[in-house]
């Protein structure tokens, strides 16, 4: 990356853009809602089951001016989902400010591992054991989405649920490659612990991005 671009990326005036697309949100509280997804490159959390490992190396994704990102988004939707990668790798204040100036509803999907920047209408917090969220983001999360890869993740889910606010909606979502094995356990768990809800990656069943 050229130095001048790196400087702008560091300020959040440019972002390494992996992809952007208009689709249906498949997961969590807003599933079924049409939304424009902005997938930002860069993540060093390192989940071994990550399904977007191509996002990890930010240098592989072109530094893109946030004005361009906002202009593209504005052609499609007033509901924006910023995802990654880990979007909080970067300063999200400039991007979200410009999206807000266009009157958009802005959601983030984050592990919460880094400082919370940006103005958000909806925070989906998906904590990861290997790099836990910052204390600040727990209290601001609107939904907690714990990915269940194995049985130990139920204990982790309860620990995480103890840290979010009272109104935070709690979801258990099977890791995609383990869905057949884990889904019966999740169903039993949710019936016994109904403060939780099941979240599915419905977009993968629908074969849409
Ligand atoms: S935090 Fe998300 S993008 Fe990063 S490694 Fe984990 S699943 Fe992948």
UniProtKB/TrEMBL annotation:
Q: Which reaction does it catalyse?
A: 6-carboxy-5,6,7,8-tetrahydropterin + H(+) = 7-carboxy-7-carbaguanine + NH4(+)
Where, in this chain's numbering, is substrate bound?
24-26, 39, 83, 209
- Look up the record and name the cofactor or cofactors this protein needs: S-adenosyl-L-methionine; Mg(2+); [4Fe-4S] cluster
Q: Which EC class heads this enzyme's classification?
A: lyase
Residues in Radical SAM core domain copies: 30-209
A molecular function GO annotation = 4 iron, 4 sulfur cluster binding
Q: Entry cofactor note text? A: Binds 1 S-adenosyl-L-methionine per subunit.
**Which GO terms fall under biological process for this protein?**
tRNA queuosine(34) biosynthetic process
- Enzyme Commission number(s) of this protein: 4.3.99.3
Q: Which SUPFAM superfamilies match?
A: Radical SAM enzymes
Q: Which residues bind S-adenosyl-L-methionine?
A: 49-51, 85, 126-128
Which residues are listed for [4Fe-4S] cluster binding in this entry? 43, 47, 50
Keywords, A to Z?
Answer: 4Fe-4S, Iron, Iron-sulfur, Lyase, Magnesium, Metal-binding, Queuosine biosynthesis, S-adenosyl-L-methionine
Which pathway or pathways does this protein act in? Purine metabolism; 7-cyano-7-deazaguanine biosynthesis
Question: Matching Pfam families, A to Z?
Answer: Radical_SAM (PF04055)
Subunit architecture:
Homodimer.
Family classification = Belongs to the radical SAM superfamily. 7-carboxy-7-deazaguanine synthase family.
Q: What does this protein do?
A: Catalyzes the complex heterocyclic radical-mediated conversion of 6-carboxy-5,6,7,8-tetrahydropterin (CPH4) to 7-carboxy-7-deazaguanine (CDG), a step common to the biosynthetic pathways of all 7-deazapurine-containing compounds.
**What is the name listed in the Swiss-Prot or TrEMBL entry for this protein?**
7-carboxy-7-deazaguanine synthase
Task: Give the originating organism.
Answer: Marixanthomonas spongiae
Q: What taxonomic lineage is listed for the species of origin?
A: Bacteria, Pseudomonadati, Bacteroidota, Flavobacteriia, Flavobacteriales
